[in-house]
Design a protein that fits this description.
Elements (H helix, E strand, L loop, with lengths): L2 H6 L4 H12 L3 H7 L6 H8 L9 H11 L3 H8 L19 H19 L6 H11 L2
Length: about 140
């Protein structure tokens, strides 16, 4: 991929939405219609005006990608958050946990996700790189 293309993909979500809507000659209502109900025109309008308050849901990301005819990866890149890997199911032995323990597991997972989405690195990637270089 050329450097020019990489730079073009580093637009903010607001810039990406505005640019694609200009290219496709869409209104906020038209884009919402093209999303097949996944995103409202109010949300699109707020994003265009820079008034959207934070990260959009995966459903809205899918809707924006559909409406703007871009890969969903570009939406996540513009939001500067990692793209979901897929649905996650806990190992079957954890289904024996009582409801109050399940709630605690979910709370820990939410804290980890929030840290990950805010760029926290526990050093695991660096350790894996060192191990790979060492040939272990």
């Amino acid at each position: 991929m050329s450097e020019l293309v990489r730079l073009a993909e580093r637009k903010s979500l607001q810039e990406l939405v505005q640019a694609r809507m200009d290219t496709l000659e869409l209104t906020a209502r038209g884009a919402a219609y093209r999303s097949d109900g996944l995103v409202s025109y109010e949300t699109i309008r707020n994003i265009m005006r820079g008034r959207h308050g934070g990260v959009v849901s995966d459903r809205v990301a899918q809707g924006l990608a559909k409406a703007l005819q871009v890969p969903v990866e570009r939406i996540y890149t513009a939001m500067q958050v990692p793209q979901p890997v897929g649905e996650w199911h806990l190992p079957s032995e954890l289904h024996r946990l009582p409801p109050e323990y399940r709630a605690k597991v979910e709370d820990v997972a939410r804290v980890l996700l929030a840290a990950y989405e805010h760029g926290f690195d526990d050093g695991a990637a660096a350790r894996e790189t060192r191990l790979a270089r060492a040939g272990t």
